[in-house]
Amino acid sequence: QVQLVESGGGLVQPGGSLRLSCAASENIFDFNRMGWYRQAPGKERELVATINVGGNTIYQDSVKGRFAISRDGARKMVFLQMNSLKPEDMGVYYCYANRLSKHFWGQGIQVTVSS
Questions:
Q1: For position 38, what pLDDT does the model report?
Q2: What's the confidence (pLDDT) of residue 61?
Q3: Other Cβ atoms closer than 10 A to 82
Q4: What is the chain written as a DSSP string?
């Protein structure tokens, strides 16, 4: 069973930064795509950023220029560097991976942006 474990969330002031980490139980290059989704209270889960096996990235428009997704194959980890955080970035962030038709999710980690 694939396991994805997030870390690095927490409370940050507007304008601050956080770095989320996702540790995978398997070789990350065995997945077609990995990335991050988030869900704010009362809203649907939405894509934040993803990276495919070839290294191509996709970002939600609202985070372009502020967030950066990266990975470390040797450590089986994917990261999300979040800068210039805004209150609307607040929510539960989920690590995601897919392999063919199978989708895997982490348990989620809270990111709170508040003064």
A1: 98
A2: 98
A3: 26
A4: ---EEEE--EEE-TT--EEEEEEESS-GGGSSEEEEEEE-TTS--EEEEEEETT--EEE-GGGTTTEEEEEETTTTEEEEEE-S--GGG-EEEEEEEEETTEEEE---EEEEE--
- Residue indicated by tokens 């220029």: 65
Residue type, 17: S
- For the four alpha carbons of 79, 61, 104 and 26, in that order, the dihedral sign comes to negative
- pLDDT tens digit sequence for 21-55: 999 999 999 999 999 999 999 999 999 999 999 99
Identify the burial level of 48 via C-beta atoms within 10 angstroms of its C-beta, where 0-12 means exposed, 13-18 middle and 19 or more buried.
Answer: buried
